[in-house]
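Suppose you are handed only these lines of text.
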Amino acid sequence: MDKDQGKTGGVKGYLTKRRLCVVGFIMLLFFSFGFGVGVGFVWYTSNDTGLDAPIKISSTMSNNTQDLDDFHKVNLLRRSDVLTMTLWFAPIVWEGTYNSEILNEQFRQRNVTVGLTVFAIKKYVVFLKKFLETAEMYFMVGHRVNYYIFTDRPEEVPEVVLKEGRKKVVLPVQNYPRWQEISMRRMEMISNFFQQRFINEVSYLVCVDVDMRFNDQVGVEILSDLFGTLHPGFYAAERQSFTYEHRPASQAYVPSDEGDFYYAGGFFGGTVMEVYKLTKKCHEAMMVDKANGIEAIWHDESHLNKYFVYHKPTKILSPEYLWDDDMGRREILKKRRFLAVRKNHAAIRNK
Ligand code: UD2
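From them, the structure of the protein bound to UD2 can be written out as follows.
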């Protein structure tokens, strides 16, 4: 399989046009405080245009109450055209599904510092300037941020003016000959700095690719114990087309009847402890694969997906948070917050 055609779309034989028939579920909750409240979601998609078609949900919140209003204030289920909650009650974050004023206030009161980890190894340092400049405009605006830049070329890290409460921490690390190994080793390096830095310095970690730019607000609405991002190529796809690792010999193996979503390798995070557990486990699994002479089909992304099958994220980010304009624009995306930067693979990889 060739991965040299683009970052996200058109790479993995992603979604073509497909009719996603009825994928449905009905959930009923009954609370009893004098009034019964039934909450029902019907999730179905019906489309002729594949990616473009909305994932529809009808939700009915009935009866009272003040409590529900409060719930909605933080966790607004106002969008009727997209799936906004998983079967295990994890919110799926889209524009219009949260109240940023309330969330910002809550996180400010907690004086939270967010760590953003990014790897710029070998030629990928060229992406840092745009990445950092746009992060200053859109990432966690009004909150304290530590940028953790892992690089083998500390002298090439650009000077970017940072706002108050935000700082850059350059972490020198080794490189590897193959780009796939660099990508995979990120799990090891992140887990290695848990004790030394992260646990003492930040509450949450957000782990992203560097060949990206922020294009709109990415704020505290993404924060949760453990979060992943729906891969832009698969957010409306059926399980059968998810490119999980299907070879049982790999530690990333996911049986064909398991898995909820296909997550992108380039945007995940959570509390420092949860990210530590995730990165350590994925790294260990990759080391077992290495010893057995097998490499998962999509490298760290395959291991991340395996992890999320058995450790369900407590929040999921919609493709607003990871998009590639090469895939075109979608009506369903009210915002394109974090976008792939086009790169010349031959010129940039393994260099
Ligand atoms: C996808 C995933 C990526 C990873 C990869 C595994 C997204 C948006 N991206 O990206 O997270 O799971 O598939 O196949 O979901 N890097 C360097 N120097 C190098 C090579 C890589 O610093 O020489 C770092 C850099 O931060 C880069 C990341 O590793 O952004 C992933 O590599 P990539 O962006 O080339 O991989 P890609 O686009 O296939």
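What can we learn from it? The longest helix spans residues 179-201. Residues 13-74 have pLDDT under 50 and may be disordered.
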